[in-house]
C-alpha cells in the first residue's frame, strides 16, 4: 500500500517535470508566433499571451524591406540546403558502398582515415578554405557552401552502418551475374535499398545546411546572395532599437518555420533516425 | 584452394573500389586537407591588414603562438569551457533521468511520444534565429522584462545581458534546450539495448530502482556516456552562433562570453591571417585529441 502511494507521487512528479521541460521548449516559440502577429506599437506596450491581428501586415513589411531581401534569402537557403542534402547523401552512399563491397589495398587505411576525421570541426581549416575559394574566384558565390558536402564523414558512417545490416553482398554478386555494370548496380539495385537511410540523412544534412552560419557568413558578402542565418545576424548588428519589432519577429519566424513544419510531419521518422547511425552497444 | 578461373570470375573489382571512394577523397583533400596545411603555414607568418596597408607575409616562427598564449587565448578558452559546462551539466543529468523513464517498461508515461517529439524539437532550430529570439525576448524592454515588471515580480527591468552571469546563463540555457532532447534519445536507445533479463534478475533479487540504476544501467551505458561527453566537448569547442548573435560578436560584458571560435571569426573577418592561423592550429590540436578519443571508442565496438 505504502509502495503504491510512493510510486503515485513519483509519477506525478515525473509528469510535472516532463510538462515543465516541454513548456520550456515550446514557450519561446509560442511567444515568437504571438509577437509576429502584433504591431510594433503593441509590442512596445508590453507582453501579451494573446495574438494580435497584424500578421499579414508584418509579413508584407518584411517582404517589402529592401534591406533584408528575404525572398532571396529563402531561395539561397533552399538552394544551398537541397544541394548539400543531395551531394552529401549520394556521394557518402557511394563512398560507403566502395568501402563495403570492394576489396582493395587501401580499403582499411581509407576507412580508418574517415573515422579519424568523423568529428573534426570544419572551423579549423576555415582560413585556408577562404583563401582557396578566393583564389578559385568562388568567393561570394553559393558553390563553396554546397560542393564540400561531397565529403561528409558523418553521413558516410551512417550509410556504412546501414549497409552492414541491410545490404547483403550476394545481391551485388547476383546483379553482376545478370550482367549489370558496377555503376548500374549501385544506382538501380543498391540505391533503392538505401532509401530509408538516404531520407533520414537528407533531412539532417538539409537542416544542418539551413542553420549553418559560420562559414556562409565569411564567404558571402553581397546582400542578395545571403542565406537566412546571415540575414538574421544582420538584424542584430544593425541598430537594433530602430527596427520595427513586429518585422524582426516575423523574420525569425520565417527562418525557423519551414523546419518545424517538416519536423511535425516526420517527427517519428526523424527521432528514430537520430539513433540509427549512432554508436551501438 | 580455389584458383581463380579465367574469365568473369577472375575480374578484379579493386579499381571500382577506388573509383567509388574517389569523389569523397578529392573533395576532402581540396576543401579541407590542403586548406588545413595552408592554415598551418600561415600560422608562422606575420600577415595582417592595418588600415589599407598590408603587413607581411613575414616569417616569424612561433611568435603568433606565443603571443596568443600570453594575451587573450587563455581567457577565451576559459569562457568557452564555462559556457559549455553550464549547459552540459543540467543536460546530462536531465537526459539520464528522462532516458531512464522513457526506456523503462515498468514506468508508465502518458503522452510519451508527445514528450519525445517536443523535447527534440529545439535541436533542429536555427541557432542563429534562436539566439536572436532570446536576445529580443530578454532585452531590457523585451517581453520577459515587461512581464516581470507588470506583475510586480521585479520593480525594474532586469538587465540580463549586462551581467556576466545573465549572459552566460542565457547561453547555457539555450545550449541546454537545444541539446538535452538529442542526448535523451541517444541514452534511451543505449538503455533499451541492455539485455532485459538483467533488469528482471535485479528485480527478483529485490534491488531498488536506485540500485538498479547505479549498479546496472549506469555501468552498462558508460561507453555511450563517454561518447556523449566527448562529442559534446567537440560541439562546445565550436560554440559560435549563440553567443555571437546574443552579444553581437563582442562577447559582452567585458568579453566574458567571447568563445574561441568567435575570436577566430574576429581574426578571419579582419584578415589577420597569422593570428587566425595560429589560433586554428591550437583548435586543431585540441580537437585532434578529442577526435582520437572518439575514434578509439568507435573502434572498440566494430
Description:
- The complex is a heterodimer of chains A (281) and B (302).
- The radius of gyration of chain A is 24 Å and the shape is globular.
- In chain A, 43% of the residues are buried.
- Chain A folds into two domains: 2-61; 67-238, MetI-like fold.
- In chain A, 74% of the residues lie in helices and 0% in strands.
- In chain A, helix 9 (169-177) crosses helix 10 (182-193).
- The two termini of chain A are 38 Å apart.
- Chain A has helices at residues 2-36, 40-45, 55-64, 70-101, 107-116, 126-135, 143-146, 153-166, 169-177, 182-193, 195-211, 214-219, 228-237, 245-276.
- Chain B is globular, with a radius of gyration of 25 Å.
- Residues 1-8 of chain B have low confidence and may be disordered.
- Chain B has a domain at 72-269: MetI-like fold (Orthogonal Bundle), CATH 1.10.3720.
- By secondary structure, chain B is mainly α.
- Chain B has a two-stranded antiparallel sheet.
- Chain B is 69% helix and 4% strand.
- In chain B, helix 5 packs across helix 7.
- The chains are: A mainly alpha (281), B mainly alpha (302).
- At the A-B interface, helix 1, helix 4, helix 5, helix 6 and helix 11 of A face helix 1, helix 3, helix 4, helix 5 and helix 6 of B.
Short description:
Chain A has 281 residues and is mainly α.
Amount of beta strand of chain B: under 5%
Largest sheet properties of chain A: none
- The level 1 CATH classification of the largest domain in chain A is Mainly Alpha
Low-confidence parts of chain A = none
N→C terminal distance of chain B: 29 Å
* Arithmetic mean of pLDDT of chain A: 89
Tell me roughly what share of residues is in helical segments of chain B.
55-70%
Mean pLDDT of chain B: 89
- Give the number of domains of chain A: 2
In the CATH hierarchy, what is the class of the domain at 72-269 in chain B?
A: Mainly Alpha
Tell me roughly what share of residues is in helical segments of chain A.
over 70%
CATH architecture of the domain at 72-269 in chain B: Orthogonal Bundle
Structural class call of chain B reads: mainly alpha
Q: Estimate the global geometry of chain B from the Cα principal axes.
A: globular
